[in-house]
Fold Spore coat protein.
Amino acid sequence: MSIQLFMPTFQVEECLNEIRECLESGWTGIGYKTIEFEKAWSAYTGHPYAHFVHSATAGLHLAVKQLKMKYNWTDEDEIISTPLTFISTNHAILYEKMKVVFADVDEYLCLDPADIERKITPRTKAIMYVGIGGSVGKYEEVVALCQKYDLALILDAAHMAGTRFKGEIPGKEADVVVYSFHAVKNLPMADGGMVCFRDKEDDELCRKLTWLGINKDTFSRTDTKGSYKWKYDVEHVGFKYHGNSIMAGIGLVQLKYLDRDNAYRRQLANWYDEGLAASKIHTVDIPSNCESSRHLYMILVNNRDELLLALNQVGIYPGVHYQDNTAYRMYSDGRGTCPNAHRCSEQLMSLPMHLQMTKADVTYICEQVITYAK
Ligand SMILES: *Cc1c(COP(=O)(O)O)cnc(C)c1O
């Protein structure tokens, strides 16, 4: 018996049909399915603009870059972010040579609004908020802080595909929301991401920057009549960040099942809650109005490293999300500034969470965790 942390599930036949359509039509690049997927994502989330990129990392980079351009931020300016995240989140800030100021996490392991407020300086320009594991944490309070201090808000929603808050997809208040469709995220493709800017002009610029700064994509050029369709202008030093139709085709299929799949993840989480309820094991809660995508099911234990090894011995392969980013050399400036995140990062464990698991798997994992956890 072996239960892995993550295991993506694909609707193989339906995905192959989408890919076949791309191959037969001879259109595998940007345009065609990428446009279809962007429209489907907008309709699903209610975000007015959605641009499909090759990864959330690319999307987060553009988010910081474009807001820096738009608001004339300088290299000395600061963005408040969390140390408990995948490094893409914070690298996006460093790509643009701005300063990462870490704030601590709260009981949901998301940024703690009280500590954010303590870390705001005259140089603070934005908050980079991560909905870890699919939770919203205290997102509403963070939105209020952004309004109070006139800060931009970037929502790293890499774990949040399908998460709802008070019945709605959150993020409408943010300047930009970025999703990931990486192979082991909630809506897996192989790689992909979506950048959802709130403002139209930001979305328009984003579409140029993801294709090297060229001002028209190939698809619309083939639509235009006449012999000048090869002509385009280059307005910016952009990047090669856009997504392609093969990935978008997979996304179109996966999106149809996202709500069903997330509901099953919440079922697995409920079974974990029940299985661990009688023990003293600390499980990371989800706020009451949040219907989480349940990308992760996290617990905190004192003997994390020992427990990981013990579970591996019995065929269970949990993970750790994440190592406190200030432990990395690139972010060592922030050491000591976020004691709660630091302590949690030594105790955190993500239990297996994927669609091929059964109730019996969860029961077995709970038994083993209770046996070996301290
Ligand atoms: C996975 C992840 C990313 C990066 O996503 P990619 O699509 O792989 O670039 C960014 N932020 C968080 C919190 C993530 O977990």
